[in-house]
Specification:
By secondary structure, the protein is mostly helical. Helix content is 68%, strand content 0%. The chain is built from 8 helices and no strands. The chain starts with a helix and ends in a 10-residue tail after the last helix. 30% of the residues are buried.
Length: 151
C-alpha cells in the first residue's frame, strides 16, 4: 500500500496531540477523534494511520509501557506527558508495525520531541528508543533483517 511520508508524519503529530489529551483528560477516544476531524488540515494527514495509533496505543498500553520501562531512568508516570505520548507511539510502532524500519520510527519520534517536547527531550527520546529498538528488533538493528518494501 502506497502512502505519503508527509501524511504519515502529520498523522503521528495529530496522534501525539490526541494521546496527550487522552492521557491527561481521560476523555473518550471517539470524542477526541471527532475534535481532530474538525480541523481543516487534518485531511492532509494519513487519517487511517492516525485512527490506528489513536485506537491501538491505548489498547496495547501495558505491553508498550512494559517494553519501554526497562530503558527508562524513572517510571513511565514520571516521564513528561508529551514525551510519554511520543514514547508510546514509537513503542507501538516498534512492537506492532514491522513494516516501518526502526530508524524511521526513532527519527520521527525525535522530530516530534524537538517540536513539542522539552528542550533536551529529543536526546532522552533518542536514547530510550535506541535501547528499546535493540531489544525489540535485535536482528533489524544488527542489520540482518530483510529489507521491507524495498526500503
Amino acid at each position: 500500500m502506497k502512502f505519503s511520508a508527509h501524511a504519515r508524519a502529520r498523522a503521528r503529530r495529530y496522534a501525539l496531540q490526541a494521546l496527550y489529551q487522552w492521557d491527561l483528560s481521560g476523555q473518550e477516544l471517539g470524542e477526541i477523534r471527532r475534535q481532530f476531524a474538525e480541523d481543516e488540515e487534518f485531511t492532509r494527514s494519513d487519517v487511517a494511520y492516525f485512527t490506528d495509533l489513536l485506537n491501538q496505543v491505548p489498547a496495547q498500553l501495558d505491553t508498550i509501557d512494559n517494553s519501554i520501562a526497562d530503558h527508562l531512568d524513572r517510571s513511565m508516570e514520571q516521564v513528561d506527558p508529551v514525551e510519554r505520548a511520543i514514547l508510546r507511539i514509537a513503542g507501538y510502532e516498534l512492537l506492532f508495525r514491522e513494516d516501518i524500519p526502526y530508524r524511521v520510527i526513532i527519527n520521527e519520534a525525535v522530530a516530534l520531541a524537538k517540536k513539542f517536547g522539552a528542550e533536551q527531550g529529543h536526546v532522552f527520546i533518542n536514547g530510550v528508543l535506541d535501547h528499546a529498538a535493540h531489544k525489540i528488533r535485535p536482528l533489524e538493528c544488527a542489520g540482518k533483517s530483510e529489507k521491507v518494501n524495498g526500503l
